[in-house]
Every structure is written in structure tokens, then in C-alpha cells.
Specification:
This protein is mainly alpha-helical and about 270 residues long. It contains 14 helices and no strands.
Length: about 270
């Protein structure tokens, strides 16, 4: 068990798996080119299958090394799910899932600790993102109802109904062509710019920036937690070293008392 654990945690083993993931990502990309598949399709598929079985062997080694802890590690379960997708039947019902084989590239995230911390920070920010998303939905709805009533009759292609207004406001929120749209609306509603400027200031420059603030805050807290765990580990090591040092200091005088002096041991 210890030998297997040392194997799967060895740096060279991690680098080997990382290289295979990159090679597999290149193969999956080459499969999108018909000319390449017509010439090298057989070799690419054979290499893809070989790499897949290497991934299976790697997961089996990790499962044997870690036992039940393998299923308690979310990153191990992620690797297992990504590899298992490749074994789905090749029919129309699973065509989309089989196309998700490219998700194997995401295994690079589980290998690099820094990438894992970024993803963990994003996951930790989900509650805050959900709250801001709810605020954004409310803002969307309020402005969409107002835009439909204000501009729906003159500009039905953009604001003729609630869902048309929602789509147009989403486009304006991304700042894609909003100036041209507003200039056309101002030909019939000269003060329409006030409505859209207030909307952009609210939705784009305020609410959307809150998403960034929440994500940055979550990542900073994640980094702080990592630093606190490192500090606690260092304190534990220091306390253990201090205990060992005290024990050695206690043993030193005791050994000197029990050791016979040279003058006593010499024959008279």
C-alpha cells in the first residue's frame, strides 16, 4: 500500500500523466480536421484508446493506493467521471456525452494545486454569485417592463414584447452596439438616452462588477485559509521539535550520571 501511494504521488508519475493529458488534448483537437482524420485517423484513434487505458490504469492505482479515501476526494471523483464518459455507447443518445471526451483536458486542473485553489475559490463564491444574479434578474425585469411600455410601440423589433426587451437589454448590457441602437431610438424618443445610461450604469458598471468583487473576495479568503493551514502545520512542527529538544536535554544529564567516570573504571 505504501509503495503504491509513493508511486502515484511521485513527481515523475504526475508529470507523466500530465504529458499524456496534453497529448490526448492534441489528439482530440486533430480529430476535428477531416483531412487529418482521412490520413491519420486510424493511428489517432488507436493512440487515443491507448491513452484512455493508461488513464484507467492510473485511476486503478490511485484507488488501490488510497482505498476509501479515493471516493471522498472530489478531485478523484472528477477524474473518474471524466474518464468514464469515454466508455459510453457510441449511439445518438450519448453523442453529446461522448463529445465531452475533451473534458479530459480539465484533468490538468486536478494535477496543479494552484489551479485547484482557483476552482475552489470559484466554488466558494457561488452563494454570493447567486445572490448577485438574483439582483441582476430583478434589474433586468424592471427595466424590461419599462422599456416595453416606453419603446414597444415605436420599436417592436427590439421592445415589442417582454422577452424581446429582455434580449435587447442583455445585448445593451454587454455594450455590443448599444450606441447605434440608442441613437436610432432617440429619433423618436429624444430623451431615451437617460433611460439607457441609467440602465448601463446599474447593470453593467455596478451589478456585473459585483460578480468580480465576490470572486476576488472568495479567492482571497481561500488563499488566507491556505496560509493559516500552513502556519498551523509549521506551529505543530515547531512544538514537536521543541518537545524533542526538551527530551534530549533531559536525557543528556541522566546519561552523564549513569556513565562511569574514567577514574573509577581505571585499575588501581
Amino acid at each position: 500500500m505504501n509503495t503504491l501511494r509513493s508511486l502515484v504521488e511521485a513527481p515523475w508519475f504526475t508529470r507523466f500523466v500530465m504529458a499524456l493529458i496534453i497529448v490526448n488534448a492534441v489528439i482530440l483537437g486533430l480529430e476535428t480536421y477531416p483531412a487529418v482524420m482521412a490520413r491519420y485517423g486510424g493511428a489517432l484513434k488507436a493512440l487515443d484508446h491507448a491513452i484512455l487505458w493508461v488513464f484507467v490504469a492510473e485511476l486503478a492505482l490511485r484507488l488501490a493506493a488510497h482505498g476509501g479515501r479515493f471516493f471522498r476526494d472530489p478531485w478523484s471523483l472528477f477524474d473518474l467521471a471524466v474518464v468514464a464518459v469515454a466508455f459510453l455507447p457510441a449511439n445518438e443518445a450519448f453523442a453529446v456525452l461522448r463529445a465531452a471526451r475533451v473534458l479530459r483536458v480539465l484533468r490538468l486542473i486536478s494535477i496543479f494545486p494552484r489551479l485547484r485553489r482557483v476552482i475552489e475559490g470559484l466554488i466558494a463564491s457561488i452563494p454570493g454569485i447567486a445572490s448577485i444574479g438574483a439582483i441582476l434578474v430583478i434589474v433586468f425585469y424592471v427595466f424590461a417592463v419599462m422599456a416595453t411600455k416606453l419603446f414597444g410601440e415605436a420599436w417592436p423589433e427590439w421592445f415589442g414584447s417582454l422577452h424581446d426587451s429582455l434580449f435587447s437589454l442583455f445585448q445593451i448590457m454587454t455594450l455590443e452596439g448599444w450606441a447605434d441602437m440608442v441613437r436610432e431610438i432617440m429619433t423618436t424618443h429624444p430623451f431615451a438616452w437617460i433611460f439607457f445610461v441609467v440602465y448601463i450604469l446599474t447593470a453593467t458598471f455596478t451589478v456585473l462588477n459585483l460578480f468580480i468583487a465576490v470572486i476576488v473576495d472568495a479567492m482571497q479568503r481561500q488563499h488566507g485559509d491556505d496560509e493559516s493551514e500552513t502556519a498551523q502545520a509549521l506551529r505543530r512542527i515547531e512544538s514537536e521539535l521543541s518537545a524533542v529538544r526538551r527530551r534530549l536535554d533531559e536525557l543528556g544529564p541522566a546519561q552523564s550520571r549513569t556513565q562511569p567516570h574514567a577514574s573509577d573504571a581505571a585499575p588501581r
